[in-house]
């Protein structure tokens, strides 16, 4: 983009140009430092990482693999001591283990992978003189893995659909997996979405009951052996033996990082689908609203409105009460309408005559407590097979909804729709004003004006992503000569000015993924600027944006290799090392101290 010209508050830096460097590239005048890497000690006493001598016992006390969402929870008013909570979405065995044989993984490798999933909780100090954010040993430090017991709560806890031979109560599940994005709640806990959970299970073809089969199909569970072959070491991953184990994943989980002995929770009231994450808005009357996306082509956006109201304050008592808010309320799915004639939405991405992709919409109730609003479904079925219930009410099929997040400054809600190669192609749903491009390669960002606890909203597309030189892109009406190209938006964050920060997954423009900022109000609305790029094959995840520090999770570096045994990246350790997913902190260097991000 052309440099120079005015910038909105908090966005005054020289944008990083598109590039393909095997490192994190930050703007001129900014510093960076690794906070923590895969394998670094988390729990006090954990051994140092030893790539050639990995064990499950070590991994379950070390930082897990493929960091995705990260959240910062301050422990003091100054924000010096904080809890850092991080998701470990999935494992990449070919990179983790030298000489890995995908057809015959060893039990040791499988057990390491179970320990590399889940979350890390650790104490971090903000000390910008010592390099951003430093991890400290503490009593809070904790790993949650596929062996950690979770309590199932809410209206579907104890449902017959959740009972297995290992858990006849249907209320206790070992572990969480594929934790993608998430959110920090106003009461100081972490929410996390169980996303592509189908990939861990084998033998959906051995299920004979047609209804069970149909439900497994709608959630993408596969026939035959699983990629990781876990079913050879624990039969809960074999759907032919334990079909209900599938229903024990695909939830929003909540972790109380203040209490390292707490049992994490799976909240059934928030429905079961490929949850990207959940973010909370507190309504004026104190009820809480959770916004959620189901990240699959042609799947839906949801919200949950609690029945009870939030107790303020940071006490353990308030926290326990507030965690209970997500167990009772109403679950809704979104239906969108455009305000332009359908004939003007031709699939090219050209704006309709009124100059905007925009319109109105409504939240369709699915279930509230024990009451179902969907004909043919019990409330329990709505919660456990939410996708099928949403199909039945005619929700709007979206281009892969990722983060859905309220902006704390202007109150509007933003959703990243990452892409959809099948949109409008033969045999698939046609374009509509909300998802207006055929084969949507670069995704778009939706902005909603939502009455938090109500059922009506208005919406507009803030960004239709891609190369600004292409006529099928839109940058909030801003001058396209001055914006950074952006492709495949995924995670969202807001700074104190209300600027929207967007990290990307799967850049289709020939550059690496990165982190961008875009003002959403005032004359600079739509002025997208790239803040950083990540190394070869990596995705940018879980941005944390504070006044003087930005962090990103660099996920799956090197994963674009044609030969999986030879990753394309050696980041961050360099030389001929295997890549290690890591969290990186970035700040503006003001002569040895950190200045405000985006202000010179
Ligand atoms: Fe794991 Fe939807 O990205
Ligand atoms: Ca319109
Ligand atoms: Ca994601
Ligand atoms: Ca993604």
UniProtKB/TrEMBL annotation:
Entry-linked InterPro entries: PhoX, TAT_signal
Pfam families per record: PhoX
Ranges annotated as biased composition (Basic and acidic residues): 587-600
PANTHER family in UniProt: DUF839 DOMAIN-CONTAINING PROTEIN, SLR8030 PROTEIN
UniProt region (Disordered), positions on chain: 1-20, 559-600
Protein name: Phosphatase
């Amino acid at each position: 983009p052309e440099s120079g010209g005015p910038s909105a508050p908090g966005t005054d830096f020289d944008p990083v140009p598109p590039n393909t460097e095997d490192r994190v590239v930050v703007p001129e005048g900014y510093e960076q430092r690794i906070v923590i890497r895969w394998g670094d000690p988390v729990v006090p006493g954990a051994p140092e990482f030893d790539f050639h001598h990995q064990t499950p016992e070590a991994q379950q006390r070390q930082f897990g693999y493929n960091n995705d969402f990260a959240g910062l929870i301050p422990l003091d008013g100054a924000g010096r001591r904080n809890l850092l909570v991080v998701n470990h979405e999935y494992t990449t065995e070919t990179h983790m283990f030298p000489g890995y044989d995908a057809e015959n993984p060893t039990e040791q490798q499988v057990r390491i992978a179970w320990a590399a999933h889940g979350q890390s909780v650790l104490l971090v100090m903000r000390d910008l003189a010592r390099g951003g954010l430093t991890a400290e040993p503490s009593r809070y430090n904790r790993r949650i893995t596929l062996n950690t017991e979770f309590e199932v709560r809410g209206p579907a806890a104890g449902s017959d659909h959740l009972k297995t031979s290992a858990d006849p109560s249907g209320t206790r599940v070992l572990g969480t997996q594929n934790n993608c994005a998430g959110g920090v709640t106003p009461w100081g806990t972490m929410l996390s979405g169980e996303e592509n959970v189908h990939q861990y299970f084998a033998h959906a073809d051995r299920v004979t009951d047609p209804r069970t089969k149909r439900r497994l199909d709608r959630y993408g569970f596969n026939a035959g052996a699983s990629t990781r072959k876990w079913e050879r070491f624990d039969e809960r991953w074999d759907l032919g033996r334990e079909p209900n184990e599938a229903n024990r994943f695909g939830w929003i989980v909540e972790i109380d990082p203040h209490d390292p002995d707490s049992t994490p929770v799976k909240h059934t009231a928030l429905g079961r689908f490929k949850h990207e994450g959940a973010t909370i808005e507190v309504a004026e009357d104190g009820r809480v609203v959770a916004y959620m996306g189901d990240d699959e082509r042609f799947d839906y956006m949801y919200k949950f409105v609690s029945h009870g109201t939030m107790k303020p304050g940071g006490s353990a008592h308030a926290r326990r009460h507030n965690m209970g808010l997500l167990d009772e309320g109403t679950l809704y799915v979104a239906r969108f309408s455009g305000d332009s004639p359908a004939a003007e939405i031709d699939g090219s991405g050209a704006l309709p005559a009124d100059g905007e992709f925009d319109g109105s919409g409504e939240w369709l109730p699915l279930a509230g407590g024990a009451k179902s609003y969907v004909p043919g479904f019990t409330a329990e079925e709505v919660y456990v097979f939410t996708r099928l219930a949403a199909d039945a009410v005619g929700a709007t099929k979206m281009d892969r909804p990722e983060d859905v997040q309220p902006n704390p400054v202007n109150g509007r809600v933003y959703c990243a729709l990452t892409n959809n190669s099948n949109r409008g192609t033969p045999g698939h749903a046609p374009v509509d004003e909300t998802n207006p491009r055929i084969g949507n390669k670069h995704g778009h960002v939706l902005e909603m004006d939502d009455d938090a606890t109500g059922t009506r909203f208005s919406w507009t597309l803030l960004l239709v992503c891609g190369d600004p030189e292409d006529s099928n892109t839109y940058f909030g009406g801003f001058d396209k000569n001055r914006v950074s190209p952006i492709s495949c938006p995924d995670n969202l964050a807001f700074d104190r000015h209300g600027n929207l920060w967007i990290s990307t997954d799967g850049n289709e423009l020939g550059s690496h993924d990165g982190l961008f900022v875009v003002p959403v109000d005032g004359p600079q609305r739509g002025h997208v600027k790239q803040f950083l790029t990540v190394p070869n094959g990596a995705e940018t995840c879980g941005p944390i944006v504070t006044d003087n520090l930005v962090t990103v999770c660099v996920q799956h570096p090197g994963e674009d290799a044609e030969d999986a045994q030879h990753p394309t990246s050696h980041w961050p350790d360099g030389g001929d090392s295997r890549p290690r997913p890591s969290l990186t902190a970035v700040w503006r260097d003001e002569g040895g101290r950190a200045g405000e991000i985006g202000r010179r």
